[in-house]
Design a protein that fits this description.
Cyclin A, domain 1, 11 helices, 63% helix, 0% strand, disordered N terminus, Cyclin-like_dom, Cyclin-Q, Cyclin-like_sf, cyclin-dependent protein serine/threonine kinase regulator activity
């Protein structure tokens, strides 16, 4: 069994980051794992797209670079194109001009919106071409099964198990959703089943606040609280996914300290 303090430290770091004002990341100077997905999500927030759309963009980005080498293509261009493509897939469209200006300004802090000149049209053409490249590379298979729907179902069931008093005493749902969205920063999200990811995000939230599910026995794999939901999730796999989620916050700390 992993040390519970290791799990709880994730939540503490997450809360500390929210209270501390972080200086904007200079993406052109930082070369750390996870920096481009951070760029993608920062742009997604500025574009005011839905969380599921930004998650789709991240999955598209990770799937693309699973097929090709990151040294062969401009990762920031692919991230911008993934945002534009995800908006179409999730019926949450954004104007390509907004994508261009937001991504360009995020890479070049303090610059004004691009004029309709050569640079603008060059970037526009690059995003459109990258969109076609992504689709071809993924063999036009852009269907994505998200863990979000599983998480919602598990949370509703778990809420009735724990009772309203315990459930409302700590932000379990909010923390689990945050862990899930943050996990999209890592390409390791592609290695696991969506249902398993949802369980582990919820499990990490429960561990963070020291909540014990009634009648569950963590010493017995057959009596884990999540067994009725996913019978094929072993304890080893469970902790492997949680470690992958925790790794995201370690990478975040490294980027922030740069």
């Amino acid at each position: 069994m992993k040390n519970l303090l290791d799990v709880m430290s994730v939540q503490k770091r997450s809360e500390a980051n929210k209270t501390q004002k972080q200086k904007p990341t200079d993406y052109r100077k930082v070369d750390k794992p996870g920096v481009v997905p951070r760029f993608l999500f920062e742009c997604a927030i500025k574009l005011q797209i839905k969380p599921l759309t930004s998650a789709s963009a991240a999955i598209i980005f990770h799937r693309f670079f699973k097929e090709v080498s990151s040294t062969d293509y401009d990762e920031y261009l692919i991230a911008a194109s993934a945002l534009y493509l995800a908006g179409k897939i999730k019926d949450d469209p954004v104007k390509i001009r907004d994508v261009i200006n937001v991504t360009h300004n995020t890479l070049n802090r303090g610059t004004p919106p691009l004029e309709l000149g050569d640079e603008y049209w060059s970037i526009r053409d690059a995003i459109v071409q990258a969109e076609l490249l992504i689709a071809r590379t993924l063999k036009f298979d852009l269907n994505i099964e998200h863990p979000h729907k599983y998480l919602l179902y598990y949370m509703k069931t778990l809420q009735s198990w724990l009772g309203h008093t315990i459930w409302s005493s700590v932000p379990i749902a909010k923390s689990a959703a945050s862990f899930l969205q943050d996990f999209h920063h890592s390409s390791k999200i592609l290695n696991h089943k969506p249902s398993h990811i949802a369980i582990c995000c919820l499990s990490l939230a429960l561990q963070s606040y020291g909540i014990q599910v009634p009648l569950a026995d963590e010493s017995d794999e057959a009596s884990m609280w999540y067994t009725p939901f996913v019978s094929d999730l072993t304890k080893e796999k469970h902790w492997e996914i949680i470690e992958d989620i925790i790794e995201i916050y370690k990478q975040e700390s490294e980027i922030n300290s740069f």
